């Protein structure tokens, strides 16, 4: 009897630990499903980020993807390459690749820091050969003393995604500094908060628990309970398309342990989110089942022992 009670107590402790450690994952899976529902009836995509997010969510069929127009900058061409890569309609000889490589200067840069990061990610997504060593060197030279790139959570996150593709110690140290900046950054709007989450995740940290900022809890505070879309700021009267798709992208990053930018660059394709992914719930269900079985074993064993004792007394 004592052994059974000890086993039951152990299972109860495991159950409690599982609920605590997996709570964030359950919330993320639930939120992803809810935000997905917001896009169910949206057939015409109007943002570059929406094309990437819908591809990552496996929701592109039946929707018209948005492909960015070439705007004369490396960043514009890079976005188009990333969008085409995401939807999987890659031409055999894509002229955009040659055009993008033409933007790289002799010092390794592709223009602004944002354009530079996007260019590195786009070229990596197609496994294209270019002056990557110069590109990495130039990018690291742009990092500030506080670890940021251009004092921007968005550009810092993109830099983390690009630099984390390298296995060199110098680049990894730059990533660590950038992640520290992102963890400590105090965002006053949901979009910056989403880029924080994306950068922290691509830097190898758990954005749900990093620091003491409670980033996920703060992100959910920007959400409208009416249709699961997101406000840009706490004082807005209406939700915002850019804020909503960035929230979807940030939640997707946590769910997949890397952002869609990093996955595109590393694999040239996206891992589709499956609503059936419910490992935390399944694990909790198994633990609950075992605990329940242990409980009934204790009850039935106690009844059997009581009955045996009464029969013995009768004789």
In short:
The chain has 315 residues and is mainly α. It has 13 helices and no strands. Helix 1 (2-38) runs antiparallel to helix 11, helix 8 packs antiparallel against helix 9 and helix 9 runs parallel beside helix 11 (241-256).
Describe this entry's structure for a reader.
The structure is a single chain. The chain has 315 residues and is an all-alpha fold. It has two domains: 1-38 and 279-315; 39-277, Glycosyltransferase, CATH 1.50.10. Helices cover 63% and strands 0% of the residues. It contains 13 helices and no strands. 37% of the residues are buried.
**Unreliable stretches:** 8-23, 277-282
- H/E topology pattern: HHHHHHHHHHHHH
The percent range for strand residues is under 5%
Please estimate the helix content: 55-70%
User: How would you classify the quaternary structure?
Assistant: single chain
Whole-angstrom Rg: 25 Å
What is the fold named in CATH at topology level of the largest domain?
Glycosyltransferase
Count of strand segments? 0
Termini Cα gap: 24 Å
Mean pLDDT, to the nearest integer, reads 85
Top CATH class of the largest domain: Mainly Alpha
Largest sheet: none
Shape: globular
The number of distinct structural domains comes to 2
How many DSSP helices?
Answer: 13
Per CATH, the architecture of the largest domain is: Alpha/alpha barrel
Annotate the secondary structure layout.
Blueprint: H1 2-38, H2 48-57, H3 74-87, H4 95-102, H5 113-125, H6 132-141, H7 153-163, H8 169-184, H9 190-202, H10 215-220, H11 241-256, H12 260-267, H13 279-314
């Amino acid at each position: 009897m004592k052994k059974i009670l000890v086993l039951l107590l152990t299972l109860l402790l495991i159950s409690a630990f599982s609920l605590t450690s997996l709570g964030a994952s359950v919330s993320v899976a639930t939120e992803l499903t809810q935000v997905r529902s917001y896009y169910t009836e949206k057939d015409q995509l109007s943002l570059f980020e929406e094309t990437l997010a819908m591809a990552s969510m496996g929701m592109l069929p039946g929707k018209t993807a948005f492909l960015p127009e070439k705007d004369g900058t490396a960043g514009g061409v890079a976005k188009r390459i990333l969008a085409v890569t995401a939807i999987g309609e890659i031409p055999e000889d894509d002229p955009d690749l040659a055009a993008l490589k033409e933007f790289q200067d002799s010092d390794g840069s592709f223009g602004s820091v944002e354009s530079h990061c996007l260019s590195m990610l786009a070229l990596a997504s197609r496994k294209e050969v270019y002056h990557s060593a110069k590109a990495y060197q130039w990018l690291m030279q742009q990092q500030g003393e506080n670890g940021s790139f251009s004092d921007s959570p968005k550009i810092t996150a993109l830099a983390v995604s690009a630099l984390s593709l390298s296995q060199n110690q110098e680049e990894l140290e730059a990533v660590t500094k950038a992640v520290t900046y992102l963890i400590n950054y105090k965002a006053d709007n949901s979009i910056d908060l989403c880029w924080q989450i994306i950068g922290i995740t691509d830097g190898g940290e758990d954005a749900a628990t990093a620091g003491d900022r409670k980033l996920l809890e703060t992100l959910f505070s920007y959400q409208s309970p009416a249709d699961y879309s997101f406000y840009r700021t706490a004082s807005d009267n209406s939700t915002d398309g850019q804020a909503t798709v960035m929230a979807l992208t940030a939640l997707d990053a946590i769910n997949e342990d890397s952002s869609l930018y990093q996955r595109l660059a590393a694999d040239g394709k996206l891992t589709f989110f499956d609503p059936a992914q419910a490992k935390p719930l399944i694990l909790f269900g198994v633990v609950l089942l075992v605990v329940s079985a242990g409980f009934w074993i204790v009850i039935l064993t106690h009844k059997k022992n009581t009955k045996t004792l009464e029969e013995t007394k009768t004789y």
